[in-house]
Prior knowledge:
- It contains six helices and four strands, in the order H-H-E-H-E-E-H-H-E-H.
- By secondary structure, it is an alpha+beta fold.
- The chain has one domain (about 25-135): Alpha-Beta Plaits.
- The protein has a four-stranded antiparallel β-sheet, with no helix packed on it.
- A hairpin with an 8-residue loop joins strand 2 and strand 3 (about 75-80).
- It is flat and about 50 Å long.
- The model is unreliable at about 1-25 (pLDDT under 50).
Amino acid sequence: xxxxxxxxxxxxxxxxxxxxxxxxxxxxxxxxxxxxxxxxxxxxxxxxxxxxxxxxxxxxxxxxxxxxxxxxxxxxxxxxxxxxxxxxxxxxxxxxxxxxxxxxxxxxxxxxxxxxxxxxxxxxxxxxxxxxxxxxx
Length: 137
C-alpha cells in the first residue's frame, strides 16, 4: 500500500511540474520572420546582435535565431519571449544607457529588410500537450 501511495504522489508531482511549462509566462512567444534585402545580411545580423545586447543589459531573454538553409524564401526566423510593459521599459532604459535610441529600432531595421512578419504563438509543446490544453485529451 505504501508503494502505491508513493507512486501516486510521484505521478502527481510529475504532472505538477510538467504543466507549468505551458503556463510559464503565459506560454506565448513572438515569432518574427525576416526577408533581408540583398547585400544587407551582415548589417541585419549586426542590428539583431545589438538588440540582443540591449536585452541582456536589461536582464531579458535574447531571441532564438534560426537561419534559412533550404526551402521557403525567408532568411531568418527569431523566436522571442513575449515581454511585459515593464520589460519593454527596461529594454528602452538599457538602450539609453548604451547610447542607443530604441524608439528608432523599427526604422533602423527597415534599412536591412524587404519585409517581415510578427506572429504570436503558444508553445513549445507537443500535439498531445496542445490537445490537453484545448480540452480534447
